[in-house]
Write a structure and sequence with these properties.
The structure is a homodimer. Chain A has about 350 residues and is an alpha/beta fold. Chain A is about 40% helix and about 15% strand. Chain A has three domains: about 45 residues, 434 Repressor (Amino-terminal Domain) (Orthogonal Bundle); about 130 residues, 3-Layer(aba) Sandwich (Rossmann fold); about 140 residues, 3-Layer(aba) Sandwich (Rossmann fold), CATH 3.40.50. Chain A is built from twelve helices and twelve strands. A six-stranded parallel sheet of chain A has the order 2-1-3-4-5-11. Chain A has a six-stranded mixed sheet with strand order 7-6-8-9-10-12, with helices on both faces. Chain A is elongated and about 90 Å long. The N and C termini of chain A lie far apart (about 90 Å). The N terminus of chain A is likely disordered. At the A-B interface, helix 4, helix 5, strand 2, helix 6 and helix 11 of A face helix 4, helix 5, strand 2, helix 6 and helix 11 of B. Chain A binds a DNA duplex (30 and 30 nucleotides) through helix 2 and helix 4.
DNA sequence: AACGTTACCGACAACGATTGCGTAAATATT
DNA sequence: AATATTTACGCAATCGTTGTCGGTAACGTT
């Protein structure tokens, strides 16, 4: 009967015990009443519900997590939040997670392998129910993930994956996107087409180069490896590589960049050098910039469905998390890209 | 001695109990050994540490959370992740949280009051240790936050705050930024300057309008309320409002937009109408777009230190979280903005 | 009247970790 | 030698919740 006024450090929330005490019931009964168990008197239920309402009772998810050995949270590891592609993907992830009752815990690898490993360790010890990850540009081996995966942690890759782990993957059709993009440049009359690639260790890089090569081959244009430049993600490195490309004996007529940041760096340097786009040099990108059409000149892009990729990946992950049956029917979802042609590749010989 | 092979649903992780069993010790001893308690035999410690290492023991943060009534996670509520300002801010938040041992749980309000309320409820029941929030454009009252706050939940506002809650706030110097921006337009020879504002309920909106008015007043330009337009955040609404502004009897010579999305929408519409920038109309924004300089024309902006705002806010929040003393010396941190002048406001009469 | 059914509810253990308290043995003190 | 102290560890409670088991009524059945 005595109302205990315990002062906790943080916010005090009513527990099932408080309700039990107030109503002179056992915690078991209260628990069952709250979950609507059939073996509780409807009248008792009513009273319990009423009291719970009055005390503003909220079940403690931490206690539940401990009991059920699940956290109802998923971890997301991306190279950089502040990158339109990833922030759009996270938007999609959050949407799905949200209405399936999960929370999203964010980690950034900053394109660093070491950070990625630490992130994974955190996620593991955090007991998230599953992991969505897009690999860092530095990542060449995935033992850290493999260990987690064999231990039973559901993992789904999106965009940047590794073949060494057999699980769901959600990717854009990088090959086709690069093929169409390159073909568009070719159809615009360009023969010397450079390809500014990201880290050579990434799956997306390889796929896009394949598409690029295939388009060249289809149109009988010889492949020139001097026209393909890789770079990691530091600003200086990007600018150096681009400078290097533009200082070659044979200047390309077109540059196909495969990331937003590369595209921006490239545009900046070209402008600085007073190279006219698209007259002197056509430019296009694998881009998720919403402002692409407002750039100067408006930017031709192969657009990836970032939001949808996030959604699909989250759905697949949560299916894995909630699936009791160990059905390893792992699939690779390939989403179509879209080529949007704008001014940066407009052919002069119109 | 018997090695129990319990098969849990998810990943099996060694617990303190497993170590105790393997070493024929009590869990208390193991626990103390792991924390390096002075009252444990150094030799015993060694053995325990060794065994923990071998079993790849990781303390269960959920169990700790339950015991200590804290989660070592902070909740972040933003209107939209996929918005450069907020993704940059989250970047800063994640950086600080990361190296202070906290995790970041993300929520989006999508500029909806209802979503924001639900988010707050989730955060509360999730038992995060603190909340960082930037209010939604629809939010006019903050009872949901006030309740949480009076219950003891540390809350720190960044960018969009409410005066009704007495706590730390981290904001950009919106007044000064708007003042300088407006003055720049005036100095460029413009007299009819429109101000495209966000939701009138937001603190940032009021502050910026104040700065705008003050600049007008300083230069003896009468305030014309037809030149100030508010809009919420739906694309249609934005375009309607802009269309409306551009269809007035007196066309402004310059538009000062106060968000990235508004600036983009505005730029788009002006281009569609073949209104030349800056000849027919100067344009500038309160922007965090990294590509602002690459837009067509390059975009004059008042830049907010988004990353730093996130960092400062996270620091203040974690200080609150970890502070034992209830010292309500709440402060409002105002970070300076920076006016970057580019082509979109270049004066023709140079 | 004796038994079996239901309906309803409580005690207890468990999830993983920490901690106050107790206590045995080993050592030190007188 | 008797006592006091230290060393090193175990027991049990705790955090909030749920599952298992069990129990007690009230009722119906023979």
């Amino acid at each position: 009967m005595k109302n205990c006024t315990k002062t906790r450090l943080a916010l005090e929330t009513a527990t099932i015990k408080d309700i039990a005490k107030a109503l002179n019931l056992s915690t078991s009964t209260v628990s069952r009443a709250l979950r609507g168990s059939y073996e509780i008197n409807p009248e008792t239920k009513r009273i319990v519900l009423e009291c719970a309402e009055k005390l503003n009772y909220r079940p403690n998810p931490i206690a539940l997590s401990l009991k059920e050995n699940r956290s109802r949270a998923i971890g997301v590891v991306v190279p950089e939040i502040d990158n339109p592609f990833f922030s759009q993907a996270i938007n999609g992830i959050e949407a799905i997670a949200y209405n399936r009752g999960y929370h999203v815990v964010i980690f950034q690898s900053h394109e660093s392998y070491d950070r990625e490993v630490v992130n994974i360790q955190h996620l593991a010890s955090r007991r998230v129910d599953g992991v969505l990850i897009s690999l860092s540009g530095q990542t060449t081996h995935v033992e850290h993930l493999k260990e987690l995966h064999t231990k039973g942690m559901p993992i789904v890759f999106f965009d940047r994956f590794s073949d060494e782990i057999n699980t769901h993957k959600v990717v854009a059709d990088n090959y086709q996107g690069a093929f169409e993009g390159t073909e568009h440049l070719i159809n615009s009359g360009k023969k010397h087409i450079a390809h500014l690639a990201a880290s050579p260790t990434l799956s997306i890089t390889r796929e896009r180069i394949s598409g690029y090569k295939a388009a060249l081959e289809k149109h009988g244009i010889p492949y020139n490896e001097d026209f393909v430049k890789y770079c990691n993600f530091s600003i200086e490195d990007m600018e150096n590589v681009i400078d290097e490309l533009l200082s070659q004996p044979i200047l390309p007529e077109a540059i196909f960049t495969v990331s937003d940041r590369l595209a921006m760096a490239c545009l900046k340097i070209l402008k600085k050098r007073n190279i006219r786009i698209p007259e002197d040099m056509a430019l296009m990108g694998f881009s998720n910039l919403k402002v692409a059409e407002l750039l100067s000149p408006s930017f031709t892009s192969v657009i990836q469905p970032a939001l949808e990729m996030g959604q699909r990946a989250a759905e697949l992950l949560l299916d894995l998390v909630e699936k009791k049956s160990k059905s390893p029917a792992y699939q690779t979802v390939t989403l179509p890209t879209e080529l949007v042609i704008r001014d940066s590749t407009k052919t002069a010989s119109k």
